[in-house]
Amino acid sequence: MTEIQNNKITLTEYTEFQDAFDFFNRQLFDGGLPEALVTLQRKARSRGYFHAERFASRANQENLVSEIALNPNYFEERTDTEILSTLVHEMCHLWRDGQRRIRSGYHDKLWGSKMKEVGLYPSSTASVGGKETGYRVSHYIMPNGRFASQCAAFLDSGHRLNWQSQVGRKARANNTRQKYQCRSCGLSAWAKPKAELLCGFCSGVLMAAVG
Q1: CA geometry: angle at 205 spanning 203 and 210, to 5°?
Q2: Statement: the pTM of the whole predicted model exceeds 0.85
Q3: N or C terminus of the chain with fewer C-beta within 10 Å?
Q4: Chain-centre distance of CA 41, in angstroms?
Q5: What backbone torsions phi and psi does residue 109 show, to the nearest 5 degrees?
């Protein structure tokens, strides 16, 4: 738990993410995850990502750690709980990587089973009914799941996120197109925000894609 210090902004915010990583590692993964470097990165159309062994020690090149990145452009209009759910989503990738290396960014059934175990349900639409595996899979928080209760305990202890990007607001203001994806077959299309679309292949409903 930290207090905002305007002259130590980096320490303040990254300490919160480290504390969150340590807390969820203990409570949701039995302390079994290796350390990872948590960063803030603006990857287009992505709330976060995991990259195995992305960093090497400058003192010992054989000492490698993975990266968990969160996109601050998506912090605005999301609660601390929702942002931290993305952190745990990527921690599930870190856990999955420890089982057996697979294609970077892929969401398979083993990863999905771990997500459900910790209280996050994989879904390509971030809602009930979305695809549970693939390259672009988000999630929704299971109301009575472990993450929901543990995250509440973490935030109730006084932890909070203090900063968010201004870029996301400006980008959305200038954006005239939205990506949509069919909930049934995965077909993608671009259209104006708030458009109502039907898939020409399977007649499924196209929903706004979630990063």
Answers
A1: 140
A2: no
A3: N
A4: 12
A5: -65, -35
**Strand-pair partners of 51:** 67
Tens of pLDDT, residues 162-204: 999 987 555 555 556 777 777 777 777 777 777 777 877 777 7
C-alpha 125/C-alpha 127 separation (Å) is 5
Q: At which residue do the structure tokens 């398979």 appear?
A: 108
Q: Which residues of 93-131 are buried (b: 16+ CB within 10 A; e: fewer)?
A: bbbbbeeeeeeeeebbeebbebbbebbbbbbbbbeeebb
Q: Residue ranges of the chain with pLDDT lower than 50?
A: 211
Residue given tokens 């959305």 in the structure block: 172
Bridge-based pairing state of the strands 48-56 and 64-70:
antiparallel
Pairwise CA distance, residues 69 & 42, whole Å: 9
Q: Pull the structure tokens for residue 176.
A: 């005239």
SS3 of the chain: CCCCCHHHHHHHHHHHHHHHHHHHHHHHHCCCCCCEEEEECCCCCCCEEEEEEEEECCCCCCCEEEEEEECHHHCCCCCHHHHHHHHHHHHHHHHHHHHCCCCCCCECHHHHHHHHHHCEEEECCCCCCCCCCECCCEEEECCCCHHHHHHHHHHHCCCCCCCCCCHHHHHHHHCCCEEEEECCCCCEEEECCCCCEECCCCCCEEEECCC
Angle, in degrees to the nearest 10, between helices 146-156 and 80-99: 120
